[in-house]
Amino acid sequence: MGESLGGGKGSEEWVPRTRLGKMVLEGKISSLEEIFANGFKISEPQIVNMLVPNLEEEVINISLVQKQTDAGEKSRFKAIVAVGNRDGYLGIGSGKASQVRTAIEKAANEARLNITIIRRGCGSWECGCGQPHSLPFEVTGKCGAVRVKILPGPRGLGLVAGEVAKVILRLAGIRDCWTRSYGPTRTVPSFAYALFDALKKTYEIVTPLDWVR
């Protein structure tokens, strides 16, 4: 857990297969904000590599999955990987393969396809500094039976969270917050996706500040 993989592969030999990919390669779209504003769906991980070149990868969890088949028992590895630039972009993905490295690569590619913008702010009544060090408001996420609540914290508080949550929050660029979790939180994949679900809501929820835009 928490194994850093560095940035993804470059786009030197990338030949786009989608209209969005061609637009990005030609420079007609230069940010993820433009993609989301126009309602495009990211279908190629290279798009994210081009628009967010300083993306980091962290392995959140690796587990062995066994399946009974007619030929006997088949074992595969399942990896959960988070990607982020520590400045408001975050994605989480999973991948299965017979080799650990292949599972990690699949998970990293899926994480890029799931990348989203994390809205940051200073939502703590104890602070009010106006800097994007925390969240603008409280959010709650869910995955299966796991529920996670993230509360804005004052500047200097740090991350009051478990190790898995700290890795994900740091990749998103969150420096100060409290987290509360409910349910079987030892199930790392469900916990990671519940946390990601909560963070996504910072961008999905419309606030009064958005009305004047």
Class by SSE composition: alpha+beta
CATH architecture name of the largest domain:
2-Layer Sandwich
Radius of gyration: 18 Å
Ranges with pLDDT <50 over ≥5 residues?
Answer: 6-11
Task: Please characterize this protein's 3D structure.
This protein has helices at 19-25, 32-37, 45-51, 100-113, 163-172, 188-204, 208-211, and strands spanning 3-6, 56-69, 72-84, 89-97, 116-117, 139-143, 146-152, 159-160, 177-182. It has two domains: 3-117, Double Stranded RNA Binding Domain; 139-211, 2-Layer Sandwich (Ribosomal Protein S5, domain 2). Helices cover 31% and strands 29% of the residues. By secondary structure, it is of the alpha+beta class. Residues 6-11 have low confidence and may be disordered. The protein contains seven helices and nine strands; from the N terminus they run E-H-H-H-E-E-E-H-E-E-E-E-H-E-H-H. The protein has a five-stranded antiparallel beta sheet. A four-stranded mixed beta sheet has the order 6-7-9-8. The chain starts with a strand and ends with a helix.
SSE diagram, text form:
Blueprint (H helix, E strand, L loop, with lengths): L2 E4 L12 H7 L6 H6 L7 H7 L4 E14 L2 E13 L4 E9 L2 H14 L2 E2 L21 E5 L2 E7 L6 E2 L2 H10 L4 E6 L5 H17 L3 H4 L2
Parallel strand pairs: 8-9
Antiparallel strand pairs: 1-2, 2-3, 3-4, 4-5, 6-7, 7-9
Helix pairs in contact: 1-3, 3-4
